[in-house]
Specification:
Number of helices of chain A: 5
Radius of gyration of chain B: 18 Å
Shape of chain A: flat
Order of helices and strands of chain B: HEEEEEHEHE
Strand order of the largest sheet of chain B: 3-4-6-1-7
Shape of chain B: globular
Number of domains of chain A: 2
Largest sheet of chain B: 5 strands, mixed
Radius of gyration of chain A: 18 Å
Number of strands of chain A: 3
Strand order of the largest sheet of chain A: 1-2-3
Number of domains of chain B: 1
Number of strands of chain B: 7
Order of helices and strands of chain A: HEHEHEHH
Distance between the termini of chain B: 21 Å
Number of helices of chain B: 3
Oligomer: heterodimer
Largest interface: A-B, 81 and 79 residues
Strand content of chain A: 5-15%
Strand content of chain B: 15-25%
Largest sheet of chain A: 3 strands, parallel
């Protein structure tokens, strides 16, 4: 996704990225980045918190208007309301990132990709 | 608490799961910047998601409203779809901490609609865009990014909000 932001920007379309994985987006470097320190899946605010979602989206639009330095990163001033314990668990043995079913789906997709590639369709 | 270092965390995690070669994330020191060519209130603003967005439809009587050409490439999402019909097919989120039941937490379509209604932005396109979390940087650069650009240009976008999940 960060690569698409870079590409659009290079070709004349201003972009802003709203994301939770700060290090991944920063390593790729995007033109404008609103970092929201929430669990993967909810970069645009907490579920059912419309006021917060509105502020986050508005902050992203602000960046479109104001950023003058490429690669600007701004952190939204919010903390996950249920505390920060989620940060300790993510990607640990105790919390396998993909369930058995999800992992199988991922492996199936990889297989399909290989097949199509072998057939020269990709 | 400090933010999560996903690159380190996933490297260790996948090594522990028996994968030998760590994923090489894209790395750049420089990036371009294109300023808005007019005030935001005169701009048409689009939205691009990697949430594997889907729309509930009746398979017997309707066609899938999402238009997808090619394998895991950029797809078009009709912007007039009622919000409650959207759902995400992705598994790439922290299922221990949260859920994806509220589509606006990762695909802020109602927030964009509000921005149009309030005049903060001039308008939005008839279709919004979806892209996949493709592992191949080459596929993103050779297929997805040019396709996204082509679609943004065809829709006359002045700017785009991108939300990776």
């Amino acid at each position: 996704m960060s690569l698409i932001a870079r590409y659009l920007e290079e070709h004349g379309i201003p972009t802003v990225v709203i994301a939770t994985a700060r290090d991944i987006v920063e390593t790729c470097k995007v033109p404008r980045f609103l970092f929201v320190d929430f669990p993967l899946g909810n970069p645009c605010g907490e579920p059912d918190n419309v006021a917060q979602q509105r502020e986050i989206f508005d902050a992203a639009l602000d960046l479109l208007e104001t950023v003058a330095v490429p690669g600007t990163v701004v952190q939204a001033d919010y903390r996950w309301s249920k505390g920060e314990a989620w940060k300790e668990g993510i990607f640990t043995e105790a919390q396998p990132f993909l369930s058995g079913e999800a992992k199988q789906k991922w492996l199936d997709r990889k297989e399909k990709y290989r097949e199509l590639k072998q057939q020269g369709k990709l | 608490m400090e933010y999560v270092r996903y690159i380190d965390r996933t490297r260790d995690y996948y090594l522990s799961q028996g994968y030998e070669k760590p994923y090489q994330w894209a790395e750049h020191d420089e990036v371009a910047l294109t300023r808005l060519k007019k005030p935001l209130s005169e701009c048409k603003v689009g939205l691009l998601t990697t949430s594997e967005l889907a729309i509930e439809f009746d398979e017997e009587t309707e066609e899938d409203p999402i238009i997808e050409e090619g394998f895991r490439s950029v797809y078009a999402i009709p912007a007039d779809t009622p919000t409650e019909k959207f759902y995400s097919r992705t598994n790439s989120f922290d299922s221990y901490a949260t859920h994806l039941d509220d589509v606006n937490t990762f695909f802020p379509i109602d927030r964009l609609r509000e921005a149009v209604a309030s005049g903060r932005v001039a308008g939005m396109p008839d279709r919004l865009l979806g892209a996949y979390n493709n592992y191949s940087i080459k596929k993103v650069m050779n297929d997805e990014a040019p396709k996204a650009l082509e679609m943004c240009r065809a829709d006359g976008l002045d700017a785009c909000v991108l939300v990776p999940v």
